[in-house]
């Protein structure tokens, strides 16, 4: 996790990598959410979302695993649960997607300015 104090700090980052995104240098120190006292929210990418705030990811389980570990940590520290927000385009909104027991329903999905809540 990269701690950013202002928009100016973001603007100073140099585009790098395959997609030319603004990234910090690899040698730059970073902090984890656990060191920082938890996260207020996580913006979660997805292949598809439903109006009921289900999410279809890329099938690797990264966000499900991370949010489960982070939830356990915040519970131990008596911190509020991290909000999960999905952002997408119109074409990503579908009525149904396959889900499994470990899939977490998002707190909200935002698609073209419309907010869906479970």
DSSP strand tally: 8
What is the CATH third-level topology name of the largest domain? Rossmann fold
- The CATH top-level class label of the largest domain: Alpha Beta
Q: Give helix % range.
A: 10-25%
CATH superfamily of the largest domain: NagB/RpiA/CoA transferase-like
Kindly report how far apart the N and C termini lie.
28 Å
Poorly predicted regions are none
Main sheet strand line-up: 3-6-7-8
Average pLDDT metric: 86
- What oligomeric state best describes the polypeptide chains here? single chain
The number of distinct structural domains comes to 2
- Mass-distribution shape: globular
Binned strand content: 15-25%
Helix-strand category: alpha/beta
**Roughly how many Å is the radius of gyration?**
16 Å
Q: Could you give the order of the helices and strands?
A: HEEHEEEHEEE
| Biggest sheet descriptor | 4 strands, mixed
Structural write-up:
This protein is an alpha/beta fold and 118 residues long. Helix content is 21%, strand content 23%. It contains three helices and eight strands. The protein has helices at 7-12, 33-36, 62-76; strands spanning 14-16, 21-23, 41-44, 48-49, 55-56, 83-88, 108-111, 114-116. The longest helix is centred in the middle third of the chain and has 15 residues, at 62-76. The two termini are 28 Å apart. The relative contact order is 0.20.
List the topology elements.
Blueprint: H1 7-12, E1 14-16, E2 21-23, H2 33-36, E3 41-44, E4 48-49, E5 55-56, H3 62-76, E6 83-88, E7 108-111, E8 114-116
Parallel strand pairs: 3-6, 6-7
Antiparallel strand pairs: 1-2, 4-5, 7-8
